[in-house]
Amino acid sequence: MNPSLSRSMLASTLAAVLLGLAPAARAATVQVTVSVENLAPAGGIAFAPLHVGFHQGLFDGFDEGAAAAPGIVSVAENGSGSAWQPAFAAADPMATRGTIGGVLLAGGMASQTFLVDTALNPFFTFAAMVVPSNDFFIGNDGATQYPLFDAAGHLLIAEIMQSAADIWDAGSEAFDPAAAAFVGDASGHTDQNGVVNRNFAELAQFDGLTTAAGYTFASQLQGGTPIYRIRFDAQTVPAPATAWLAVCGLAGLGATRRRRAG
Ligand SMILES: [Ca+2]
Ligand SMILES: [Ca+2]
């Protein structure tokens, strides 16, 4: 066989293999920046760090009308999510999980970037404690409520907005300002023996108390008051095969042009 012909055949075979691999790699891996913002009125509610996960839809942290599981209680009562993260990992071992920011006062923002396999983990789940409170939080009840990516890895949701009416009471700790995080001694605890329900009205009962951040609390909430925004920005991660193919393709094109010019 003519040596230059065999090299050319090898090159086209290699290109075909890379072309076959590249689209799948492009579709699957995306760099997602999650930005969070406290939209509540100044002097109002603050939020503990936001716990998040990109997943297959196998983790359901809580159900409205049912007793709160230890995972969501660890978010709602002290913000740590110390049991939520392990529960998430157990239910959906391939999920990409994390925690964004610190205590977020009104007007505060934070962001974090995650590398997400969108084919494996298309769904988004979040949870954060609302303070001051004994056991209030924001989060999604439905495990597949937020499908973030389509089959090609494109973002389907630009942002998730939460208003006061979206706030949950975990039903695990009774209302008690003296034992509430941010205004009292959070290590105190009285069992509520209730269920997860919507509740923001109770927050007004903390009005006039001094928070750990030094301001006098005033909830100022109506049901429609915006309190939190989660924004998503996604960038495709160039797969090594794709980048290499581009370099080879450009080099090949240059060689062809030189040959033609000659
Ligand atoms: Ca649920
Ligand atoms: Ca409660």
Provide a descriptive summary of the structure in words.
The chain is of the alpha+beta class and 262 residues long. The protein has two domains: 1-28 and 240-262; 30-236, Immunoglobulin-like (Sandwich). It contains four helices and eleven strands; from the N terminus they run H-E-E-E-H-H-E-E-E-E-E-E-E-E-H. It has helices at residues 3-28, 70-76, 84-91, 240-261; strands at 29-38, 46-47, 50-55, 96-100, 109-117, 123-131, 136-139, 159-163, 168-169, 197-198, 226-236. Strands 2, 3, 4, 6, 7, 9 and 10 form a seven-stranded antiparallel beta sheet that branches. The protein has a four-stranded antiparallel beta sheet with strand order 5-1-11-8. Strand 6 (123-131) and strand 7 (136-139) form a beta hairpin. Helix 2 runs antiparallel to helix 3 (84-91). The longest helix is centred in the first third of the chain and has 26 residues, at 3-28. The radius of gyration is 25 Å and the shape is globular. Mean pLDDT is 88; it is low at 12-26 and 251-258.
